[in-house]
Predict the structure of Sarcosine oxidase subunit delta.
Amino acid sequence: MMLIPCPHCGPRNENEFTYGGQAQVAYPDDPHALDDAAWARYLFYRDNTKGLFAERWMHATGCGKWFDAVRHTTTYEFHEVRRVGRMLETESTPGKGPHT
Ligand SMILES: [Zn+2]
């Protein structure tokens, strides 16, 4: 069993959390200007990083709040957790990753 450090409640059992996908995916400045392919890229395309990855999690059966985390995708180790709205520095940070 793994403990996930909720930034609001502290370490809790992993089965209390829901995964929310990649963190820090910026909403388009002008979504009406996007064609269907660009809109689909925004909605569905995410990095598939091996290593440190910025993710969004929710403490579903605890405080119910979303937070951002940096987790290593092969070891599952959490390196950093922050309340939503504060930037995380990882390889998957937009503009810093190999796929951006
Ligand atoms: Zn919590």
User: Anything to note?
Assistant: The radius of gyration is 15 Å. Residues 6, 8-9, 59, 62-63, 65 surround zinc ion (CB under 6 Å).
